[in-house]
Fold this protein.
Amino acid sequence: MDGSIPRPFRPRANGQERARALRHPTCIVMRSMRCLAALVLVIGMLFASTDVRAEATDTATDGADVAPAPDATAAADGADVAEDYDPWQRFNEPMFSFNHAVLDRYLVKPAATGWDTVLPDVVQRSIGRAFDNLAMPRRLANNLLQLRPREAGAELARFLVNTTVGVVGFIDVAKMALHLDENDADMGQTLGVYGVGAGPYLVLPFLHPLTVRDGIGRGVDGVLDPFGYFIPFAAGAVMSVVSAVNERSLNLKLFADVEDGVFDLYSAVRNGYLQRRQSTIEERRAARRTPEQPALAHGRPDGEDT
């Protein structure tokens, strides 16, 4: 006897137990939060490098004693706006080139072309509706967060009708019979409605264009999605690939027309994305202010004594 305290015996978990533990909701949440934390860390590092370059530029500007002309001042202001608009362009452009010239050209587009050859458009659109049906929790939660109970109720009704009568969403019975349209909403949009700035434009491999706000919002949407806690990771990855290929197949001609019709594809995609997102957020903000207008317009009648 050496006086040491014996350690309790702990049997090692087999492969099935490990797989079951990895699929546990707590484990999924932790993995999602780690991914979100990694994204925030990378964004913070990029912000830091941008701040260093900005400080260097300000120092050089302060050292100049010559006062700029009005036209030069206006040009400098325009340059500042452009820098704020896409300050990470040196990083974004290579990522965009990879996504478009490599990933889309050699993988996604050929797969989408074959998909379009095998499946008629009506089947592709039915598959797209089924994937949209699975995205109902994201739309429901964000419509509620944006204080749009009518739209949230319509999303819930659409899901119940299309999942049952519409064969898990392949047929949009709610729109055809009940005239209930889809009310798209996501966390990036919700943050924008409440005044959170978009932040710099960001392009990452294998992802659609983003802003910092929309990237964080996408991570939160993933955590809030209840289907992610029940669908295995491999099945979810396959579903994401099928959804991307199906969407690309439905837009083959549109993509080709855009590629042939613009000179600078990177700027066209960036400007279109940012303007569309800002327009949607402004419309939601205006809709939130609309109920207050009748009360102001129908105030005390003219000539009424106080």
